[in-house]
Structure formats: C-alpha cells, structure tokens
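Budget justification aside, the reviewers requested a transparent look at the raw inputs and outputs of the sequence design task funded under Objective 1. We therefore reproduce one unedited record. The lines immediately below are the structure tokens for a 216-residue chain.
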C-alpha cells in the first residue's frame, strides 16, 4: 500500500504487543506487519519492514548491541524502546546503528512520530538518548569511516588481512592502509590496538559488534 509505513515490534511483553497492535490498527499511515519475542524470530521470518521497534532488554539472553547490529546489517531501521534508560546500553545501541531511542512512558503519538521520522531517513534524538550520549561512560571513541569500520570488524573477527580485504571488496594493501588508520586513531586516544585481541576489546568497548571471543 503506497504511503504506508510498515513496522515490526520485538518485545517479550505480550500485553504490550497486543496493545500496540490494537492501537496501530487505527493509526493512519502505519501498519504493524509482525510482532516477535526475539530477534531470532524476526530474522527467521525474513520480514522486510520500514522500522523495527526493539525492546532494549529481552529475556532470551541476547544483548541490545548484538540485536541492533544484526538488524542494521539486514538493512533495517531500528528504534530502541525500554522501560527505563540505561545510559551505557542506550549509547552502545546508538553506536551500533539504532536510529532512535524512547522510553515506554512516552505516549503512542510520540512513538508514531518517531517511526515516521526514522522511516524518512532521520534520527530520533529524544531527551533520553541525548542524556545517554552525553553521559556515556565508555572510553572516547574514534571517528571511523565506513571502510575503516568494515575492515576493522572483518580483521578482528579472525580473518587474515587478505580474507578481510576480499570480504570488504578492496585490495589487501588497501585494507592494510585502512587498518593502519584505525590503529592510529585508537592510539591517538591512548587506547592500545597492537594485537587482534586488543582490537576485539576496543570493538566490544565501543559497541561496534557482537562479542568475538578470545582471539590472540
């Protein structure tokens, strides 16, 4: 249907999901295409929607950063919602690619407005998100280009430089240049990046990716 923004909601509060479905049924221009209790369920359904409303804390043991990163990697726009803000978690989900954050004490009109802004390519800077970013307790993070980030994630995941270059679609010497730039940016902030293990630690600290495990 032309002009309709499609939504999916991931939350393990069935009462909230049922209420959201009833409310959106009467909201012009918005359509709830599916509700899920985990990101695994949404991904398995291969659903293509304009915006995903994602609960910050789910009971399946997944992390907020991991969930946001998975959805963003699929090309989905994510708005994180929660009962109360956790500054470090909220800031980390924003770093992982979330396009906005709202607490559940906002009214449904605010949620509808956020969905429309994000679907149009914008970002929802709610007071809670601004507070979380300003009070982010994580170390200062360098500004990485898209290519620098891609090479960093590929290489730190355990790939060789050649494999990382192939994964990103550049020549090995180009990938090495990108990685050298990443290391220099971290070093300038006093954060060591001499080994893959240290690179993986920086990634986890900055909420760039799910846990890579122990890599030496």
């Amino acid at each position: 249907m032309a002009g309709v923004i499609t939504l999916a909601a991931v939350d393990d509060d069935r009462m909230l999901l049922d209420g959201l479905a009833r409310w959106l049924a009467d909201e012009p221009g918005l359509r709830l295409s599916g509700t899920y209790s985990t990101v695994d369920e949404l991904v398995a359904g291969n659903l293509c929607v304009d915006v995903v409303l994602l609960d910050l804390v789910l009971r399946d043991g997944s992390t907020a950063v991991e969930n946001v990163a998975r959805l963003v990697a699929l090309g989905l726009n994510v708005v994180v919602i929660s009962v109360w803000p956790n500054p470090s978690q909220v800031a980390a989900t924003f770093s992982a690619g979330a396009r906005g954050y709202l607490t559940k004490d906002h009214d449904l009109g605010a949620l509808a407005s956020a969905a429309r802004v994000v679907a149009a390519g914008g970002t929802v800077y709610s007071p809670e998100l601004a507070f979380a970013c300003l009070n982010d307790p994580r170390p200062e993070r360098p500004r990485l280009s898209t290519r620098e980030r891609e090479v960093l994630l590929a290489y730190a995941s355990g790939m060789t430089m050649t494999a990382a270059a192939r994964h990103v679609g550049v020549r090995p010497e180009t990938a090495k240049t990108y990685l050298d730039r990443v290391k220099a940016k971290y070093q300038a902030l006093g954060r060591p990046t001499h080994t893959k293990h240290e690179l993986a630690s920086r990634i986890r600290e900055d909420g760039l990716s799910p846990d890579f495990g122990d890599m030496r």
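Confidence is low (pLDDT under 50) at residues 210-216. Residues 48 and 126 are 26 Å apart (CA to CA). Computational costs for records of this kind are itemized in the attached budget.
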